[in-house]
Design a protein that fits this description.
Strand content: 35-45%
Order of helices and strands: HHEEEEEEEEEEEEEEEEEEHEE
Radius of gyration: 28 Å
Mean pLDDT: 76
Oligomer: single chain
Number of helices: 3
Helix content: 10-25%
Low-confidence stretches: 4-41, 93-97, 264-270
């Protein structure tokens, strides 16, 4: 009897323990880490070649209360350049002398009317208010528009994890989108990687999203192969997008054709057609020296041979030239050497002088 009684108590205690465990499981669902994108201050992240971005990063403000979308156009300085190279024809002269031959552009980026892609068009200063006349530069397929909400278990209880919802509400009101970077398409053959032949992005990675002051910055890397030669000519390209904020006090400079020979370091941004060639107004790009422009000295040997000093002397000569032509007051520096350390030599946040000691790459 005593033995049976002991067994009965043990069984009762085991049953009681099971009930307690079951009760705890019922009251507190299993916790899981929240979606990392909701916990991050970043607006974009890359995973498996897909760029997940908040639409607000590109200027779209979505009001949940009024269910309205407001678009505030952003101007982006963009550029891309190969930073590493590989393949059977690695180092083959003209096919590989491009790591520092960056492609620059000024674009406005919008979501297409049907929501199927993100489109970038080159800003045309000849027709600043006629978006339809701007030249398309590239487009990125949009895989989905969505928002996040808490997931639930089989009993309808909220879990500490989030799920994407892409089948409710109008797509325009969903604040997130997934961009298929691997299938980016360049319409401008003069600006796309590998020029006429183009190339294929095989993988996108190493995304960087920051705010420089009040300017948004997005960069990512893409491993690419040549459209004709395939894996024989392969590069890792670095893509940069830096928001441009106009300085309201910046004085535009009309371009004088008679002075063209003195403006070889500048370029014409556009002209205002008037029907009379003599009255056309051309605009030239020039430095905004309302405050010193920081220059990065990239890849200079950090040793006692004095190579970095060469870069600093170049900056001094540029300052002297700017003072000589009256672009800055006497004693004012237009350019200074930056102390920041960038991961990639190609980075639009910092104008740079890059040391290249390869005889082929510097060709």
């Amino acid at each position: 009897m005593k033995r049976c009684f002991a067994v009965a108590i043990a069984s009762l205690m085991l049953s009681f323990s099971v009930l307690i465990m079951t009760s705890c499981t019922y009251v507190t669902p299993e916790a899981e880490d929240p979606n990392p994108e909701l916990q991050s201050t970043e607006n974009c992240a890359v995973r498996d070649g897909v760029l997940s971005c908040k639409k607000s990063f590109f200027g779209y403000d979505i009001s949940e209360s009024s269910r309205e979308v407001t678009y505030s156009p952003k101007t982006w300085l963009c550029g891309w350049a190969p930073v590493t190279q590989s393949g059977g024809w690695h180092g083959a002269g003209g096919l590989s002398n491009t790591p520092y031959r960056s492609r620059h552009c000024n674009v406005e980026i919008r979501i297409s009317k049907d929501g199927s892609e993100l489109q970038a068009k080159l800003i045309n200063l000849n027709f600043p208010n006629d978006y339809d006349r701007w030249q398309p530069l590239f487009s990125i397929p949009i895989q989905s528009h969505y928002y996040y909400e808490r997931d639930v278990d089989s009993r309808g209880r909220e879990l500490n994890k989030f799920k994407k919802v892409s089948d409710r509400a109008n797509w325009k009101l969903r604040p997130w989108m997934d961009l298929d970077l691997k299938n980016i398409k360049f319409q401008d053959v003069f600006k796309r990687p590998y020029g006429f032949w183009g190339g294929q992005i095989n993988d996108a990675f190493d995304v960087e999203v920051t705010t420089e002051g009040d300017k948004a910055f997005l960069a990512f890397s893409g491993s690419m192969t040549h459209g004709l030669y395939g894996s024989l000519v392969s590069h890792t390209y670095r893509f940069n997008f830096l928001e441009i904020k106009d300085n309201p006090n910046f004085k535009p400079t009309p371009y004088n054709k008679r002075n063209a020979k003195h403006m070889n370091i500048l370029h014409i941004l556009g002209y205002q057609p008037t029907g009379n060639q003599a009255q056309e107004v051309n605009w030239a790009a020039h430095w905004d020296v309302s405050k010193p422009v920081e220059f990065c000295l990239n890849s200079f040997p950090d040793d006692n041979r004095g190579y970095k000093k060469i870069g600093e002397e170049v900056i001094d000569e540029m300052n002297q030239a700017m003072e000589k032509i009256g672009a800055v007051e006497k004693g004012q520096k237009a350019f200074v050497v930056s102390k920041r350390k960038l991961k990639y030599d190609f980075d639009l946040r910092c104008p740079a002088i890059t040391w290249v000691d390869d005889p082929i790459l510097s060709f």
